[in-house]
Amino acid sequence: MAMVIQEVKHDISHIETVNERINNFLSKDNFNKLQGIMRTIQVQAGNHLFWEGEQVDKMYYIQSGRVKLRTSSESGKEFLLSIKEEGSLLGEIGGFNNALYYSYRAEVSENAEIGVILMSDLKKLMYEFGNFAVEFMSWIGWSQRVTQNKLYDFLFYDKTGALASTIIKLTTTYGVKCAEGILISIELTNKDFGDFIGTSRESVNRVLNAWKREGVIEMIDRKIVIRRLDYLYDICDCVNHTH
């Protein structure tokens, strides 16, 4: 089980990897420039890098560890927006002249080493090096597309379609080929999946159990193995064409 699945993100136009490394957008020289303005800190699991409503004055580069991005509705419903790992850059860019506030929080779920970047230093870097600014803008564009894809799931899919889409997205980051199919190498609970798509753990459990009976997935060591990826794509494609 050594080969990571990368090509699946191209099979449906709106499916895009949720955990792209920032150095995939920056040249080696520009990535070194970004690292040059980082201050490294150690953060223990259970702590937060930032909270909803907090002003955006820093960005965070995950050097190691894992961070979950979460938000809550006014009614108190929890949403898991994304799970970020090594190589991910966290933060928002909404213009350097106006105050921007986080609409979500970043919870460190595994002990992490984090590079902290002051927005004032990033601004100087972008002003000084035009090619850095252009490459960095490509990351901003990708981040916006990922957010739009998340909204796409909520707007155009029912819960079954949203769950299928979420699992497909997870294969682009955590999918590993194995004899049984494609293993999602990160362990997620049914509550995590429910938080991803804004539904209850019980609803996720019903859908996953139905897929198990139909041979679409199975569970190995509390991790999902997808046996029929085409089935999940068909769900997304059918729902997509009904709108």
From TrEMBL:
The keyword Transmembrane does not apply. Residues 22-94 form the Cyclic nucleotide-binding domain. It holds the Pfam family cNMP_binding. It comes from the Bacteria. SUPFAM superfamilies: cAMP-binding domain-like, Winged helix' DNA-binding domain. Keywords: Activator, DNA-binding, Transcription, Transcription regulation. InterPro entries: cNMP-bd_dom, cNMP-bd_dom_sf, Env_Response_Regulators, HTH_CRP, RmlC-like_jellyroll, WH-like_DNA-bd_sf, WH_DNA-bd_sf. GO terms for molecular function: DNA binding; DNA-binding transcription factor activity. Residues 157-230 form the HTH crp-type domain. GO terms for cellular component: cytosol. This is Crp/Fnr family transcriptional regulator. It comes from Fredinandcohnia quinoae.
